[in-house]
């Protein structure tokens, strides 16, 4: 039995984007193992069907829903503070929420939305929940952060730093792949920074699964045509949950594809690229703060 199946009654996981698909399957898997769950979703109402299934799986389980729009930075930080204050420690954070679009769409903050949701949001949430993750590591020796990657990273020759915030093209091999490559790079930086805290960080490809994302226009036509033949989202959830197992201890910072550690493509994990990427994120956050202040003044 793995460690993730042994420390049942005291483990707490935070999962973003757990309404359907891989996020919902992951919640069901962890609930079956006795984990307490905090689900960070845009809509509590849309989470109710999942909540009913979780209670059926574990009638005595602890399942909490907190509403958050991951493009709302102030709300994201406020929710992280509420989670930390209420629960104290977090054994696992799954940055499951993601966006795949064939169009380039700018968020209210002026960023290409795939970069914002797939890169900036998980980075900010991982940083905001660091104290609670560190507390779990101090109490129980280990805490884990898992963020989905994608197999299309293998086709990326470099990280286009200059166009991350606006994007060049949509689709799986466009802004989506770039946003995932950006986080895979940041994951190595987070892993190094959090190493002494006992927090391990992984970017994991869950594979192509039968989810709403793979039926959308952002998915390649062959994937949409063969959708019914794809693995159920439970397969992807199992790949993410595997990072809780002992065999991955000491391998923080890994990009995991097909259950194996892979190099970060295009040299995106070089110190220079990561430094430039962090500057881009700092600039995005600063401009968002200025924009919010201007809106408040106008109101």
Description:
The chain is of the alpha/beta class and 299 residues long. The protein has one domain: NAD(P)-binding Rossmann-like Domain (Rossmann fold). Helix content is 44%, strand content 12%. The protein contains 9 helices and 8 strands. It has helices at residues 21-32, 44-57, 73-87, 113-128, 130-140, 172-194, 221-225, 233-241, 271-298; strands spanning 12-16, 36-41, 63-67, 92-94, 143-148, 199-204, 255-257, 260-262. The protein has an 8-stranded mixed beta sheet with strand order 3-2-1-4-5-6-7-8, sandwiched between helices. A hairpin with a 2-residue loop joins strand 7 and strand 8. Helix 1 (21-32) packs across helix 8, helix 4 (113-128) packs parallel to helix 6 (172-194) and helix 6 (172-194) packs across helix 9 (271-298). The longest helix is centred in the C-terminal third of the chain and has 28 residues, at 271-298. It is globular, with a radius of gyration of 18 Å. It starts with 11 loop residues before the first strand and ends with a helix. Residues 1-8 and 290-299 have low confidence and may be disordered.
């Amino acid at each position: 039995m793995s460690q993730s199946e042994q420390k049942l009654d005291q483990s707490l996981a935070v999962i973003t984007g757990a309404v359907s698909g891989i996020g919902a399957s992951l919640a069901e898997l962890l609930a079956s193992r006795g984990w307490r769950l905090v689900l960070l979703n845009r809509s509590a109402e849309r989470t109710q069907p999942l909540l009913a299934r979780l209670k059926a799986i574990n009638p005595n389980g602890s399942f909490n829903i907190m509403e958050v729009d991951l493009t709302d930075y102030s709300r994201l930080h406020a929710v992280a503070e509420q989670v930390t204050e209420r629960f104290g420690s977090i054994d696992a954070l799954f940055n499951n929420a993601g966006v795949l679009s064939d169009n380039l769409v700018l968020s209210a903050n002026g960023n290409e939305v795939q970069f914002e949701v797939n890169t900036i949001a998980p980075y900010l949430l991982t940083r905001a929940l660091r104290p609670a993750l560190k507390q779990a590591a101090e109490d129980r020796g280990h805490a884990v952060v898992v963020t989905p990657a994608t197999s299309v990273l293998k086709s990326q020759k470099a990280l286009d730093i200059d166009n991350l915030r606006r994007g060049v093209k949509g689709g799986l091999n466009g802004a989506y792949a770039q946003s995932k490559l950006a986080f895979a790079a940041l994951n190595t930086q987070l892993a190094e920074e959090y190493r002494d805290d006992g927090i391990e960080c992984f970017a994991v490809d869950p594979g192509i699964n039968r989810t709403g994302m793979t039926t959308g226009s952002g998915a390649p036509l062959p994937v949409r045509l063969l959708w019914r033949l794809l693995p159920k989202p439970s397969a992807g959830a199992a790949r993410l949950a595997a990072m809780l197992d002992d065999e991955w201890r000491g391998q923080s910072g890994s990009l995991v594809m097909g259950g194996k550690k892979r190099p970060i493509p295009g040299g995106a994990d070089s110190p220079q690229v990561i430094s430039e990427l962090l500057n881009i994120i700092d600039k995005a956050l600063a401009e968002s703060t200025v924009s919010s202040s201007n809106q408040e003044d106008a109101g």
